[in-house]
Write a structure and sequence with these properties.
about 120 residues, alpha+beta, two-stranded antiparallel ribbon, 4 helices, 2 strands, about 45% helix
Amino acid sequence: MSIILVIWRSLSQWNSFRNSEILDYTIGYEVSITSRMFTVWNLDEKRESTLEMMWKFHQEGKSNNFIRDYLNKNNYRPQRVTEYTNKMVWNSLKKYEKRLRNKDVVTIKVESVHLLKRNG
């Protein structure tokens, strides 16, 4: 493809972008990334496996009474008392669900955008 020199020169004459000061600027961003992924407390293996089992039973549609009876009959013991109650099962499941939900939440927010002029 051939370019006629007269047209080429006239195109570069009106193109003032290269001669402008726009290339002396940089766009800057301040970005905030928030996640609970790295701040979720680690549980000991025994507690974690008990909660996972309770969650599995809950997902299968088992009642809190069934989960309580299963844990107490199979010698699973809570940390501070001798046996599980319905309220403890319900509360443990609620907290574990919140823990699972918060584990994967990542929020990315652009705080500000600014234009910086380069020196030189």
